[in-house]
Amino acid sequence: MTKTFVCIACWLAMSIAAASADPYQSVRDDLASGRFDSAKLAIDRLLNDNPFDRDARLLEAAWLHSTGATAAAMTRLELLANAFPAEPEAYNNLAVLAIASGDSDAAEAWLAKALATSPAYQTVVDNMRALQRARAQEAYAALAGRTIEASVTMRALEHFAELAACTNSTRDEP
Amino acid sequence: MSRLAAIIALLVLNVASANPDAAIATALSALRAGDLERADSAVAEALVAAPDFELAKALRADIASLLVGERSLFDKARLMDLGGSEQRLWRGYAAEIQQRSRASRAGQQPLGLHAVPDATATVLLAETETGQLHVVTRTDNQWRVSRTLYMSIGKNGAGKHRSGDRRTPLGIYWVVGRLEDRQLPPRYGPLAFPLDYPNAWDRSLGRSGDGIWLHGTEPSTYARPPRDSDGCLVLSDELLVSLAPRLTAADVPVIVATRWRFGQGHATDSTIDALDAAIDGWVNEFSSRRATPTTPLTTSDVFAADYPEEPGMIVVRFRLIDESAASRYAWKRLYLRKDGDRFRVVATGNG
Asked: Which of B162, B157, B154, B177 is nearest to B233 (CA)?
């Protein structure tokens, strides 16, 4: 669980790199190293300069999740999704947080929204595939009268989150 | 060339090709492990060997869905969303997956098999609840399951009572014939082995019907759904053909039970002694009723097993030999119920 937690924090931080580089690097580094107070100060500065800074708000959600306030992080991301309904990032991030909370139905719904905005966004496509693969694994195990051990499911979900971390910075959509 | 000959030729030609049932078992195991690539390749192998394998086609469709990020067709919520006939179809596939995912009993020892004649090389043991047909053979003087096969049973399940109820009978029967391709309508596949349902115990309970066979599958499909016959036991043609030499060679008992017990153990001496005493008692009584007894009657080739769904009951089948008679011997069956330390005869039959 801890690994997933850190991984999501890393991923949320890395996802900012897709949109912009240096102004956010120190925040990413702070979050990755667990320097949450320092990260918060930097995020507040960015938001003071520009309250509508989408990437700063994504970082704020990452900070909230990293400090255990996942519900608040999701609320921030939902507000962000409302503000940028045609952008897939907030939906995709909401999906990953939903997976971390064990709600695969919600994750699927968020990923479907992300795909509706950007059908060729490779990260979202891969995340949806990973989600459906994990769900199918459970369905086939249930048909065999077996249950997937929680640890196995978590490994699938960790893979899901790591996948996001590895690829979210590469948006293939033209 | 008959269809059976064609299948045998195909088996010879494709001796190295995949067994479709084994390939599907591999695919299901890979899907449970989340390994879509291995599942896809196993399904492809199954379809090369058996292009009409409906479940393999369904799995191929499901894997294709998953690869593009769609929900599995076997996900409960997605199954619910399907319309009437489509939902029935996919529920049928789900039931087949459930049945095919059950572990093989290979290597295990069935309990309750007290005596089997030396001439009998194979005992078939069908479990209707799991849909598994176990091929039981003798190894080092112990009876063990050598293969577990997927089978289909009656549309309405097991426990036949009357003609036309589309249920598979529960009991112990013997293979009494072999019907070849040319003698069979296509829906029975290339071979069929009639069983002797109803036996004396069934008749004593008023059970009716007949024509319960072990047979193959119609040409349009590799395997039938788990519950699909009018009461017969149905195997894929490939499995039936591979089993045929064992069913033709000698007397083959077919035990049909909802579930059977497996484990270590054998009949105790006291059980064997009590069974021997019951047989001797019946033979003596039968002998005393003969009009002109000349030579003493003897017995041989004794089979004895617990009777399915009848706790405390054992069926004994043996050869009754009369050296003075023209026909020399007859097969007899006794249905014995445990009564304290002894067995009491509750029904008798021939054959």
From this structure: B154
Helices (H), chain B: 3-13, 20-32, 36-49, 54-67, 76-81, 84-100, 200-204, 237-249, 269-288
- Contact assessment for residue B175 and residue B252, using Cβ atoms and an 8 Å cutoff: yes
Q: Per the structure block, which two tokens stand in for B150?
A: 């997927």
Distance CA B325, CA B336 (A): 27
Residue B230 has pLDDT above 50, yes or no: yes
Distance (Å, whole) CA B11 – CA B5: 10
Q: Tell me the pTM.
A: 0.83
Average pLDDT, rounded, for chain B: 91
Q: Write down the ipTM of this complex.
A: 0.82
Q: What is the pLDDT of residue B127?
A: 98
Q: Report CB contact under 8 Å: B75, A128.
A: no
How many CB pairs lie under 8 A apart between chains A and B? 63
Neighbouring residues of B218: CB distance < 8 A, sequence distance ≥ 6 = B186, B187, B188, B189
Interface test with B, best of A122, A140, A158 (most B CBs within 10 A): A140
Spatial separation of the C-alpha atoms in residues A56 and A44, rounded to whole Å: 8
CB contact (8 A) between residue B72 and residue A145: no
For the stretch B265-274, pLDDT in tens is 666 778 889 9
Residues of A in contact with B71 (CB under 8 A): 108, 132, 135-136
